Predict the structure.
Amino acid sequence: MSELGFEGKGPLREAWELFLESSIGKAGLIILSIFALMAIFSFVPPMIDPMYHPMKGVDPEITTSQPPSLRHWLGTDFMGRDILSQLLAGARVAFLVGITAALMSIILGTFLGMLAGYFGGVVDTLLMRTADVIMVLPTLLVILVLASLFKGLSIWSIVIIIALFRWPGVSRVIRAQTLSLKNRPFVEAAKALGASHLRIMMRHLLPNLVPLAFLYMTFRVTAAIVIEAALAFLGFGDPTTVSWGMMLQWVWKTGHMFKAPYWLLPPGICISLITLSFYMIGRAMEQVLDPRLRKDWEG
Amino acid sequence: MKKLVSIYVLLIPLFFTSVCYGEGVIRIGLLQEPKTLNIWNATDTWSSKVLSLLYPTLFLRDPDTLELVPFLAEEHPKLNFEEKSYTLRLRDLKWSDGTPFTAEDLLFTGETILKYKIPNFYNRWDLVKKIEAVDKRTVKFYLNELSPLFESRTLFSPVVQKKEWEPVIKGLEGSGEPLKVLMNHKVKSPVAIGPFVVSEVKEGAYIFLKKNPHFPKDWDNRYRGPHVNGIIFKIFGTTDTAILELKKGGLDYIWWNLPEGYLEDLSKEKGLKIYSSEKNALYFLGFNLKKAPMNDLAFRKAVAYLIDKEFIVKRLLQEKGIVMDSPISSFNTKWYCTNISLYGKGMSREERIRRAYETLKEAGYSWKVYPVGEENTQRKGKGLMDPRGEEIKRITILVPPADYDPVRAMAGTMIQEWLQEMGIDVTVKPMPFNAMMDQVKSRKEFDMVIMGYGNLTLDPDYLRRFFESEAGGHKGDNITGYSSQSFDQLARASSGCMDPEERRKIVCQMQKILSEELPIIPLYNPHVIEVVREDKFTGWVKTLGGVGNLWSFFNLKPAKNK
């Protein structure tokens, strides 16, 4: 029997069926799929015409910000670049930043949480106090200070910094789960058979921790996307990347904030919707993992 | 941290908008709080703007002709060729505390600047060997060598009151770092010689200047002001909040350049007027000539072909500016010359790529993927290799962040894209302005940089400062490390040449050399775009640099129909 309590069908299939029973999860998945399609199709516009290149492509006939038209479905920015192409490219960046940063923070948080929970004692104290210190630091403010110190940040350094600041929450939950798992009979049995610490952690604990880690990943993706957008909006983003935050900064800095809603709203709405979709998926996954929450939608 | 302070500063004016200073007080928005009221340390734009109304210079430039007009001086200086001296008669004026303005004040100012080598002013006085007071209102300047720069530099020096500053200077004796102490001296209410004097300062919120009661009303035939009773400077953190305040009627003038995006909306507002004025600026791409491949003229020429300046002016500046082909702006007809080399002017992108490709190929460069095929077909180049066959490492273009200067940041990104088409591995790196200046000017650790000088003198002597070999040292203005014997000789000849015709010829030769050797690629000179409430005050005087000038503040009158 699996730790999740699934019998008969494979645990993944069982989980997927449960997930699909959640309307919030389905809605989240649909929205996320739309964004995934946007990211995939972001490569298409520049192939149609170089003027649809999100960064350097400009409409030769347009030199100012123009409202939506047949040629530019969402209008153009201040120098005649296509806003739709930028929005599609922004989806790609959002996935890149969100998923990479979240994955990194989850891997870090899972391993450190597992180490702390499994070994306890000094290792636990050291790791958890470090986690406490990082947890209380205001992430955005610290990243702004780091951006000033390192004199500008690239998209990858932003991803790494977000990951470094977002592992403690995960590690706390993973540690708690490890503490509960390490005294279970199957772990005791492994120890009795002479399994090494590494083997116990990798073969017996980790597989039982992964579903929980993935649940937290969905929430971390949300945080990473919002942080990147905030950084770009405040002028600390990577100027060589067309992200939604960067689009918002261009609207603001060129003085179009109050006069070009067709330029201001799309990136803002996309940031809200993509974070909402990850949040909804996270909620549904939470219900899959915790039968007590599942009752709500069954009843 | 700076952002948080900005947000805090941005909110403060909301609590003070109801402060009432009576009729005839003009309300002006500043983006940041002036750093100091100590004239010696006023290196930031905002302090300089406020202090320019308290400490006008000996001469001003006529708003229309840009010729010298005596201000603190009574008339033009008399030149004595044999003595290498200028004699200057001062106007009969009074300081804001009622004491007379005398030659002693000017003497004291000059001697202080020369003795302590005050960074902000020293280069205006370093031509002067000795100053002496002939009588109470006449001063004689003895120069090391006769130079046309005396008129464009020393005569544009402000003057401080001896009575106010003498005790401070005496206090410096025995101090280990007198210059530092002088610069950090706190000044709350400077004794002024200009039309206004500081009345009240509320840190983080506003500065109130009232009319200097001792300022004469009839100093100029055209502008007999000031007619306003005072000026209140309000501090705003962002352009958006200042514009909202202006629309609400709580502000009469925003004293900084507005992005073009605001103009359409503002032009529809009743009572507002937008001024677009030329300024004498230079925005350029600078190369570090101490590093490869930037030290190769062929590489620099290829970059020059690839940069579409017309695109930058048309798209990024929205035609609110001009393309620069020389470090001297084309509107400065007295000194701008047309005998210079131009790169890619009027060419299409394909032509630019072809010319850049040919230039590099002729110089021995090669590619992993050639940007131009056998039948002139073009594609994205990759892996540019120098004539020795070594791949060129990634080149970084430093730019200020979009937050500081969106046009420069965006121009950097566009240049990066254009250079990448040619297979040059280049990336743009935005950097906080001070850090960028430190890296470029002090440490000279950069590949390329987009820099701007926003307020240059009309006299072309800055060419000498920016490109003379001697200025290439630590913190020198020659950031590129350019060194040319022939240029140095011309630069020296130019600064000592008293014949304007002869000097123009020399300056033309200097421009020609710079256009051929390309230590920098001049990019653009933006216009200053400002907005005022004409329904509250009328009489703004438009001149080089915008309407925020002394002439305006003399001429402004409350609008009759308000």
Observations:
- Chain B touches chain A at residues 1-4, 239-240, 258-265, 311, 314-316, 318-319, 399, 401-404, 406, 409-410, 412-414, 416-418, 427-432, 435-436, 439 (CB under 8 Å).
- Chain B has three domains: 8-54+194-278+528-558, 59-166, 282-526.
- DSSP finds 18 helices and 23 strands in chain B.
- Residues 9-19 of chain B have pLDDT under 50 and may be disordered.
